[in-house]
Each structure stands twice: as C-alpha cells, then as structure tokens.
C-alpha cells in the first residue's frame, strides 16, 4: 500500500530526523484541528512518480529557466524532445515557486491541456503530471478555477484504459474538488459521477485506480456546503454496489482502497440524504460484515497498521445507518451476533491508542440498544456475556464512560429482567465508583441508571445499600450541582427500601 | 489487551450458531406498580429524565474530530505509528461532592479515605465532623439540643464518652474527672468543645496560605519524646485549664504536629491520617492508645487537611 509504505520509510529514519518529524506532525495536527473548527479541513494528495525519490531533492530552477522550458514545450514540434521538455518541466514543478512562474505565462494551462490530449502517450502522461503538480499547489493563486480548462478532458480520460494515466487524472480531479462549490458544480455538470462509475468498473482489478476513485469521490462528497445534487446523484449512479464490492481487503495490496471507499460510505451516510437507499443497496450488511472481519482480526492479535483508518468510517457509517428505519426492519442485515462482540472488542484494543475510536464503537452500541425494538440486541449482550466488558470501560473519561452509561441505561430501560441481569454482571459496585467521579455528567448518568435499577426491583435497592452505596447518595446531596443533588435526593426519597434510614452508622 | 472471552467469541468456529435471532430474548417490561413502567414515568415532575435515544452524528460533529484528524494526517502523509503522540484514554478523577470541599483524587481509595475521614458524621448545625456516629449524637445532644440544657439542670445528662460505659454525670467536669480516673485518660485530655481557637504565635509564623477563608488557623505542637522540632514552642505546665496559649505537652510522650489550613490544603500526613482512621473505628479505645499509634516523620511538620470542626474535635480530645 503505497501510502503507508511511504510512511514506514519515513519513520525508519533515526535520531533528530525523527524528533523533527514528530514535532512537525504535532504542529500539523494542531493546524488540522484549527482548520476543522473553522470547517476548513481539506487535504490533497500528491502522487509520487517512479523516477523520483520520495523526499528527493528538488531542482529549483531559476524563473527564466522555467519560462524557457515552457516555451520549448509550447513551440516544440519534435515529439521526443517535447516529451523530454515536459518531463523537465514536471520536475521543475515539484518546487512550488515554479507554479507561480508557470501560471503567469500566457495560455500555460491551455498548452498543457493540448499536450494532455495530444497524440503522444508519453507527452500526455507528462502533461498530466504537470497538471497534477499544479493541483497540489500550496499557492492560492493556483486554484481549481485556473485549472478548469483541463477538467472536461480529465473527466473523459477516466473512462480510458491506461491505469497509470487514469490514476493521475483521478488524483488531480480529487485535489480540485474541495476548492469551491463552483468547481464541484462544474465537475458535476461535466459528468464526473458517471465517469467515476465507469472508471471503477473498468479498472476494478487495479486496486491503485480503485483507491484513486475512492479518494476522488470522498473529496467530492465530503466538501463543505455539498449541494443538494451531489449526493442524490451518487446514490442514483450505481456507484454504491461497486464501492461495497471493494470492501474486502486484499492482503497483498493493503487497506488503501477499502479505506477510501469506507470514508465515502461514511460521508454518504452522515449526510442523511437517503439512508434508506443506502441500506437497500446492502450497505449495512457489507459494513457490519467487514467490521466483524476486522473484529476477528483484532481478536487474533493481527492489528495491521492503519486498520483504525478503516474501522473508523465503518463505525460511523453503521452508527448513522441504524437510524434509517425501525431496527426490526434492519435486523436481517444485523444478524451476526459477532458484531456486538466486535463493538466491545474495539474499545479494549484501541483504548490506549485511539480512545475516540473506543467511544465511537460504544456509540454504535448505543444506537443498537436505544431503539424501540432493541430488546433482541440487549438480550444478546447478556447472552454473549459482553456486559462486563462494557462495565470495565467505566473508569475512562474522554466521553467513553458517558457513552457506556447510555448503553447501560438503554438496557436497563428494557425491563426488570434486564436490570437483574445488569446487577448480576456487577453493575452496582461499578456505579458506586462512578458516583464519585469528578465529571458531573458521569454522576448524572450514573444516578439515572441507578434509579432505573432500583425502581425495577427492590432487591436491587437493597443490594445497593449492601454495597455501601448510600453514603455516596448522601454526599451528593451536599453538592452544589443542582442536577445531581436533585436526582440523589429523589432516589433517596423514592427508591430506597423504607427500613433504610439515612443514618448509616450500621453500614461501614 | 483483549479479554479471553471476547477472543473466543470472535474466533468461534463456524459450527456455533451466531445468529442474533437464534438468541433467546429476555422478557421486556416492568412489574405493574413499578415506578418506571415501559410507558414512562408516572410522576408528574420526574426527576430522572433519561430516555434511550439513538444519536445521529453529522460529518462535522465534535465527536468525530479525532478520527477526522487521523484521516487527514494519513492523507497528508503524516501519520506515524500510533505509539507517538496520540491522545490516550485517561482514567476519570474522583471528586468530593460535599459543597465547599471539591477536592479531586486520582483513585477511589484516596477519595474514600478522604470522605470517611472528614465527611462522615458531620453535625449539620455547626459543620463539625465527629469521628463516630455515637460521638456525633452526643455532640448534637449536648450542643444543639435546647432541651438538653433544661434537662441537665435536673438530671445526669453528660454521658461518658467511652462506649460501653454508660455512666452519666451532672456536669462536664464530673464527666471529665470520671474519664481521667476510671478510664485512665490523660489529664491533659480536652473535654470541652473549643469552638474558636485564636492564632497561636507559631501558627501565625507558619501560616502558609494568604487570604484563607478560614476564621482561625491553629497549630498544635506536641513535643516529641526524643527530639525537638526546630520551631517548637517552650514546654508549659500541665494545666487543666484551657488557655489559648497552652501548648499541649508530651501526650504519652508521642508527638504529632499538625497545622490546619483552609480548605485548599491537600497533603495528609500518613500517620496522622492513620490515626484519624483508627479513631473513627475504634471508639472504645482510649485516645491515649490511639494517639500512640501516630508516627512522626522526621520532625517535619505534616500538613493535614481538616475541616475546622475536625480540628476543634481533635483539640477537644487532646488538649487540656
């Protein structure tokens, strides 16, 4: 998988390089978080070419050299020489300063486009590479608007037969997608979606191209202010089944294509445009199936590098699709009980490395257990003895314990049998601990769950008292946080057995 | 990392029936008359408001932030193996919810010890914390029950503080004498409640926190048997009268050094804490033997976090 291979190579450097790399990454991460808060989170990809080292030296040419190269391309008649000139130009464009120089030349893009469509395949390739470099430019002047002359051709070439060329066109288009709504409208009008559909069909055995299609599509649908037309167009295009067929990881090629397709599915599902259509085309079935496969892999200990990049979008897709209709209707697609086991396994496996992933996994469990007809899933959690695994997550913050408490609350709400089973699984002592936590929201949820348990059967209230839980409720009565104070008082007044007094001198 | 049961569940052979619809369903619903029926709470103003709810998260939801960042780092070729710099799950901290306390602890045991030591058996009138339920009862009776003083004029109302004794006396002094004579309590045992303790010279010098909200700050120094702490006050006579400037001496030759700070103070001396714990459990032991269990560490002053009521109580038991 070329992306992760590149990463591994970089990580292998020693010493100060690594420190610098880590520092750079931390800074970059902060930038990305800021960008996300401003709804400006955008990424572009640069395809590296075979004849370059990954962090190869850039021959930064002087501006007049760039101009000269371009003029040779413009006026050249000899195709072999032109190919060489284009290659040199492409290499020069690896340096961002050359971008500005080039676009200042009159008709620069038009010339590149001419070569893109020209008779010589090698010239086409080099011209495409030039455009690709420009699409990845850090300069705001080199934007999609400037490159728009190329798009009809790039889109047409998606139905072509050359994988390498197609891949370039795809990534170039993908880089252009996030720039503006106008660009996306233009691409839509020029037929990018049927072209992508065609492309993935033609090149379905070439996983590098499949990955590129996935990337481009994800860029198209994840951009902000996605117009009302893009996602319905995607849903109607026949792309969904093709994306779903990619969801079987190839052990040799790696996770790249599956990751891209999964993120596409996530963006489609969370837009909530027509999730019923997604489900009808089998999305829930395929995604849950893959999650089970990944759960099995995680259980066996084979946690492949980058696997979380795949688990994440799948969880999100499934989580949101669970709201697309009554759970009973979705059940045929959710019939593998190992899904529940996988949803409990991911938090255990990723708690320390990716706590947010653990939280999202529990979120999916919430959506499975909160519906009107969730009783079958709640029963299954007991049958498979998964509740203790959930209870063990209660000490952890980062939103994890709150989500777990939601799930436990959902289960308790099912009925008395469920409450008794929860108590059997050891929930009451765990609640005694969560009632003491610093986060008020945790305490609030704990009181809610506790209230439900005690109300369902008096023996649970007695058990709670036996576990020395009463002092906790009394303590909370003294809190200055009204939400928990009121709830604690309510529990003490309404749900504790009458012989139990507030003075707990008997209990230690 | 992964529990064995989970592993087994996921790697189960194909012969096991894994279908959800094959799993027996537990009965839904509550007993009639249960406060929570399946149709919701019957109480008009229900205090418990949780309802199971499926949650739809859109693309930009904050819950999705970490995953999005991870994805974009990957796209931009900057992901590394997760061992570097990822946010790790934090264990929740614990907080004391007693209003005005708001101390935070990293383990349940620390919190529980704090709570059991300081907040059990609290008098709701004067906020004093007593070491046991019985002493709390006696305290309330003697200090906050107006009927008590009326009755005390006519009958023996002051109970002996030693559990199991049962003797009652007409005055506090009589009780004190009884406890010294019969129960061998030391003569510098303090029987009277001391509500306010003015600053002692040493305390002023050693006062750590400025602008403390506590009215009084007090430093008890009991001299060690073997050595003197650097800033120890001069020894005074054993005197049964209570004066503010009296420094208790040589309680059974052991020493404890404590300083009461305002509510912000955090560190508890191990030995002192131990002794308070013991005190609250073994009410029948004479306080002498309890205090003898205290360890004094290296002549340093161990800061103790106590409420004002606690301190008064300690003094009441220790200082003449």
From TrEMBL, chain A:
<protein>
    <submittedName>
        <fullName>Transmembrane and coiled-coil domains 6</fullName>
    </submittedName>
</protein>
<dbReference type="InterPro" id="IPR000225">
    <property type="entry name" value="Armadillo"/>
</dbReference>
<keyword id="KW-0175">Coiled coil</keyword>
<dbReference type="InterPro" id="IPR016024">
    <property type="entry name" value="ARM-type_fold"/>
</dbReference>
<feature type="coiled-coil region">
    <location>
        <begin position="18"/>
        <end position="45"/>
    </location>
</feature>
<dbReference type="InterPro" id="IPR011989">
    <property type="entry name" value="ARM-like"/>
</dbReference>
Automatic annotation (TrEMBL), chain B:
<dbReference type="InterPro" id="IPR013087">
    <property type="entry name" value="Znf_C2H2_type"/>
</dbReference>
<feature type="domain" description="C2H2-type">
    <location>
        <begin position="123"/>
        <end position="144"/>
    </location>
</feature>
<feature type="domain" description="C2H2-type">
    <location>
        <begin position="96"/>
        <end position="119"/>
    </location>
</feature>
<feature type="region of interest" description="Disordered">
    <location>
        <begin position="225"/>
        <end position="245"/>
    </location>
</feature>
<dbReference type="InterPro" id="IPR039258">
    <property type="entry name" value="ZNF511"/>
</dbReference>
<protein>
    <recommendedName>
        <fullName>C2H2-type domain-containing protein</fullName>
    </recommendedName>
</protein>
<feature type="domain" description="C2H2-type">
    <location>
        <begin position="160"/>
        <end position="183"/>
    </location>
</feature>
């Amino acid at each position: 998988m070329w992306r992760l291979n590149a990463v591994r190579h970089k990580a292998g450097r020693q010493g100060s390089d690594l420190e610098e790399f880590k520092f750079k990454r931390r800074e970059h991460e902060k930038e990305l978080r800021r960008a996300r808060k401003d709804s400006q989170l955008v990424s572009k990809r640069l395809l590296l070419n075979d004849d370059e080292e990954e962090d190869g030296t850039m021959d930064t040419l002087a501006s007049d050299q760039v101009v000269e190269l371009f003029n040779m391309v413009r006026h050249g008649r000899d195709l072999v020489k032109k190919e060489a000139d284009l290659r040199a130009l492409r290499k020069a464009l690896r340096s961002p300063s050359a971008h500005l120089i080039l676009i200042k030349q009159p008709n620069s893009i038009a010339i590149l486009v001419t070569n893109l469509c020209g008779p010589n395949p090698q010239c086409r390739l080099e011209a495409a590479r030039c455009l690709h470099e420009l699409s990845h430019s850090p300069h705001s002047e080199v934007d999609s608007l400037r490159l728009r002359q190329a798009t009809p051709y790039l889109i047409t070439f998606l139905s072509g037969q050359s994988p390498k060329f197609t891949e370039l066109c795809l990534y170039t288009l993908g880089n252009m997608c996030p720039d503006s709504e106008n660009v996306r409208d233009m691409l839509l009008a020029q037929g990018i979606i049927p072209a992508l559909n065609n492309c993935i069909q033609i090149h379905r055995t070439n996983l590098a191209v499949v990955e590129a299609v996935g990337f481009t599509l994800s860029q198209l649908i994840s951009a902000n202010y996605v117009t009302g037309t893009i996602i319905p167009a995607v849903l109607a295009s026949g792309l969904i089944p093709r994306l779903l067929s990619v969801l079987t990881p190839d052990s040799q090629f790696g996770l790249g294509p599956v990751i891209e397709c999964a993120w596409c599915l996530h963006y489609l599902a969370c837009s909530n445009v027509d999730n019923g259509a997604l489900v009808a085309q089998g999305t829930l079935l395929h995604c849950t199936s893959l999650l089970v496969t990944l759960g099995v892999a995680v259980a066996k200990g084979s946690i492949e590098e980058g696997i979380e990049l795949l688990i994440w979008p799948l969880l999100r897709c499934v989580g949101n699709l669970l709201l697309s209709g009554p759970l009973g209707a979705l059940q045929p697609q959710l019939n593998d009980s190992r899904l529940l086991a996988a949803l409990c396994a991911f938090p255990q496996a990723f708690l320390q490395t990716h706590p947010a992933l653990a939280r999202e996994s529990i979120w999916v469990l919430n959506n499975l257990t909160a519906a009107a007809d969730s009783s079958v899933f709640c029963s299954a959690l007991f049958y498979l003895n998964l509740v203790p695994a959930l209870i063990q997550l209660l000490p952890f913050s980062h939103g994890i314990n709150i989500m777990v408490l939601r799930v436990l609350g959902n289960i308790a709400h099912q009925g008395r049998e469920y409450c008794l089973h929860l108590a059997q699984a050891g929930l009451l002592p765990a609640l005694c601990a969560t009632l003491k936590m610093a986060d008020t929201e945790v305490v609030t949820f704990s009181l809610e769950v506790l209230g439900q348990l005690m109300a369902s059967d008096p023996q649970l209230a007695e058990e709670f008292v036996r576990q020395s839980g009463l002092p906790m409720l009394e303590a909370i009565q003294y809190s200055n946080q009204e939400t928990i104070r009121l709830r604690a008082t309510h529990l003490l007044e309404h749900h504790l057995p009458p012989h139990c007094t507030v003075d707990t001198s008997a209990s230690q | 990392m992964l529990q064995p049961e989970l592993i087994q569940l996921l790697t189960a052979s194909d012969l096991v029936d894994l279908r959800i619809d094959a799993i027996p369903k537990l009965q839904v619903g509550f007993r009639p008359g249960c406060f929570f029926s399946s149709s919701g709470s019957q109480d008009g103003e229900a205090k418990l408001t949780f309802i199971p709810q499926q949650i739809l998260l859109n693309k930009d939801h904050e819950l999705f932030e970490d995953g999005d960042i991870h994805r974009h780092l990957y796209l931009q070729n900057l992901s590394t193996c997760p061992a570097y710099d990822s946010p790790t799950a934090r264990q929740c901290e614990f907080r004391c919810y007693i209003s005005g306390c708001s101390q935070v602890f990293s383990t349940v045991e620390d919190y529980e010890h704090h709570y059991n030591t300081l907040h059990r058996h609290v008098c709701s009138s004067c906020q004093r914390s007593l070491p046991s339920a019985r002493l709390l009862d006696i305290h309330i009776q003697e200090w906050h029950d107006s009927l008590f003083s009326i009755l005390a004029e006519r009958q023996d109302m002051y109970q002996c503080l030693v559990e199991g004794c049962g003797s009652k006396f007409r005055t506090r002094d009589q009780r004190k004498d009884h406890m010294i004579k019969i129960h061998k309590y030391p003569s510098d045992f303090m029987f009277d409640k001391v509500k306010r303790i003015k600053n002692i010279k040493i305390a002023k010098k050693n006062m750590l926190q400025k602008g403390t909200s506590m009215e009084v700050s007090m430093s008890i120094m009991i001299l060690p048997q073997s050595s003197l702490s650097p800033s120890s006050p001069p020894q005074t006579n054993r005197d049964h009268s209570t004066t503010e400037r009296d420094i208790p001496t040589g309680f059974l030759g052991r020493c404890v050094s404590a300083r009461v700070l305002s509510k912000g103070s955090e560190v508890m001396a191990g030995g002192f804490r131990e002794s308070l714990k013991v005190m609250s459990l073994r009410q029948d032991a004479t306080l002498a033997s309890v205090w003898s269990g205290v360890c004094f560490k290296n002549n340093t002053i161990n800061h103790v976090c106590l409420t004002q009521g606690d301190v008064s109580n300690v003094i009441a038991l220790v200082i003449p």
